[in-house]
């Protein structure tokens, strides 16, 4: 007996070979797919928890330095507008995350969405890149805490001996015990429970926000008292021009990275359809508002060219006789780093758990502690690796690698929104243990089709593919039924064409975005080639936008995943703009960063080829039309193995 659909398993022919695993897609988690026997994470989080995670993960100590560097080199007094533009650009990704997080509220974030919408191969690369991001990011943040902590004790070398950095001549490394201890403390907090660790992060984040509010209030008072000397300059508001302001926006964009940590906790949210979009939007709005207000104050207190690039905020207050403010600002920097450290380590165990659940990593990482309902083993593994790196390595040179994982995830989330709207998966994988139920439903639908077509179910054979679907119109069947079936057949044909057009358009739009940004960013290219690539990329990008705006979105999007949540506005314009911005930033990360990341991605491809591909939970899956999945589950009466 045949199956309803098994194209992803056999339908592409032998020539497709092992590459078929790269495009197999998994099902959105549902009541049926949760019969797998996995221990679920604790549903403890609400909007305030999500805001604490989002703000704590986003506002790092970089903002205490970034305002000086960007104002001196790029934006000048227009720094506030640079932050606003960067915030709007980040909001584009936030809109895409909000829709996918509410539709697919499971651990794994961008990895999970890519697996559902694009395929296993892309999902693996996104998950593998995010592992690198959170590991390097956590270690880099931890290494940055001890110098700031030392300032509170009176100077660079004032930490106790067992916490201070030590140089080891034999190994030619500077070890940082304080960094590794802090990583272990955070790891322990995360193992206790999601609600407890989020409460701790909320307390630390509140201290950081209070320090920023002090900067805004006290700085505003000084500004009104002294007349905002930083804005009374002959060079005007845009000393570096609009180009400098936009260059500053590209730099400060990375100060908004972190809100995606909220999406990684989707499985632990009580009401994900409502709370996740609210949490992401509120956290990003708070961060953008604080950044803009701080930049307004600091740029107004001191002329941009006179700012200290290392300690711009402390120096600005010191120039007005408030040297003591440096202690409050240092406390803010330390608390910002601590909250960012928690935000860096929190998502990775959940991504490891999601990949292990799908069979792409050993099942060890998918274990959830029954008492705390936290992936303790994944959390400990993450903490041990991050603590080791922070102890032995100066990872500042690898910090650029953190951005690759984030920007790849942002890009893929935007592409996933386009796929969800125009070509959502119309087939879902079911375990081969349900083959009997699949055959039963296949037979039932086959007989129904034969009756409508005027065939005799007793004499027709399932292997006779030469019989027309509608049969002969002269058969004694009511004309309205035949006409309805013919209309459905015609509609199905048109729908297939629409999906093909939409699928190719999405792909060519992505190619256009890459060509345009690559040619625009690489001035070393020959002029003719550069302008040709820019023109071709621009035509593909604009044509893709027009085509997607003109054709209808798929009706199946209304029932895809968990309905009733946030819907991303301005599709296809918003996701395409998001893709363009993130691809531009990816290309401009530099050759050295991409060389390092490429080594990690090649290692990931080898791991997938020799382990993930052959252990995937979809290895023996049978793909059936999504509309029949629930009926097959009901027919089976068995739990998923």
Describe the structure.
- With 641 residues, the protein is an all-alpha fold.
- 64% of the residues lie in helices and 2% in strands.
- The protein has 22 helices and 4 strands.
- The strands form 2 sheets. Strands 1-2 form a two-stranded antiparallel ribbon.
- It is globular and about 90 Å long.
- 47% of the residues are buried.
Oligomer: single chain
Main sheet overview: 2 strands, antiparallel
Distance between the termini: 22 Å
The Cα radius of gyration reads: 28 Å
Order of helices and strands: HHHHHHEEHHHHHHHHHHEHHHHHEH
Structural class: mainly alpha
List the helices and strands and how they pair.
Elements: H1 7-11, H2 47-58, H3 63-75, H4 79-103, H5 110-117, H6 120-152, E1 166-168, E2 173-175, H7 177-192, H8 194-226, H9 241-252, H10 260-264, H11 272-301, H12 312-318, H13 325-345, H14 347-357, H15 376-392, H16 400-422, E3 427-430, H17 435-453, H18 479-521, H19 527-550, H20 573-587, H21 591-615, E4 622-625, H22 626-636
Antiparallel strand pairs: 1-2, 3-4
Structure summarized in a few sentences:
64% of the residues lie in helices and 2% in strands. It is an all-alpha fold and 641 residues long.
Keywords:
641 residues; mainly alpha
